[in-house]
Amino acid sequence: MSIHAPFGRRFAALCIDWWIIALPISALIAPGASSSDYAVNVGVFGFEVALMTYLAGASFGQLPLKLRVVDIHTGKKPRLVQVLIRTAGICLVLPAIITKEGRGLHDVFAGTEVVKLISA
């Protein structure tokens, strides 16, 4: 059973995902970071989010918070094209922070929704 995930939980999951990627990359790349380091972070972040969402139905940050990404029409894991559209929107940032009907625009464009799992 699931309910629509609140913004705070979705934002916390995003922060977890970002730090899981940013901290190791920052440690590997010289402390004198350049603007290209941000592009590397975003690329690795996008890869992690897309891969985990496609395989597990949730990113690393969403899993411990009991959040899942579902196809809005079927309630099941999203298709690959939905995952890619959604992830591209997250990486662009703006669609992820603008909401419509409680969903980020990246979810609206992809036909997905983030839900919170609840026990029956």
Descriptors for this entry?
5 strands; 120 residues; two-stranded antiparallel sheet; 3-stranded antiparallel beta sheet; single chain; alpha+beta; 5 helices; globular
Provide structural commentary.
By secondary structure, this protein is an alpha+beta fold. It has one domain. 55% of the residues lie in helices and 15% in strands. The protein has five helices and five strands, in the order βααβααββαβ. It has helices at residues 7-28, 35-56, 80-91, 94-97, 105-110, and strands at 2-4, 67-71, 99-100, 103-104, 112-117. Strands 1-5-2 form a three-stranded antiparallel beta sheet. A two-stranded antiparallel ribbon has the order 3-4. α1 crosses α2 (35-56). It starts with a strand and ends with a strand. The mean pLDDT is 86.
List the helices and strands and how they pair.
Blueprint: E1 2-4, H1 7-28, H2 35-56, E2 67-71, H3 80-91, H4 94-97, E3 99-100, E4 103-104, H5 105-110, E5 112-117
Antiparallel strand pairs: 1-5, 2-5, 3-4
Helix pairs in contact: 1-2, 2-3
Structural class: alpha+beta
Main sheet: which strands, in order across?
1-5-2
Portion in helices = 55-70%
For the record, the count of structural domains works out to 1
Q: Quick one: overall form?
A: globular
Low-confidence stretches: none
Q: How much strand?
A: 15-25%
Largest sheet: 3 strands, antiparallel
Number of strand segments = 5
Our measurement of the CA-to-CA distance between the termini, rounded to an integer number of angstroms, reads: 6 Å
Q: What is the count of DSSP helices, taking H or I runs of 4+ residues?
A: 5
Mean pLDDT: 86
Helix and strand element order: EHHEHHEEHE
Classify the oligomer. single chain
Radius of gyration: 14 Å
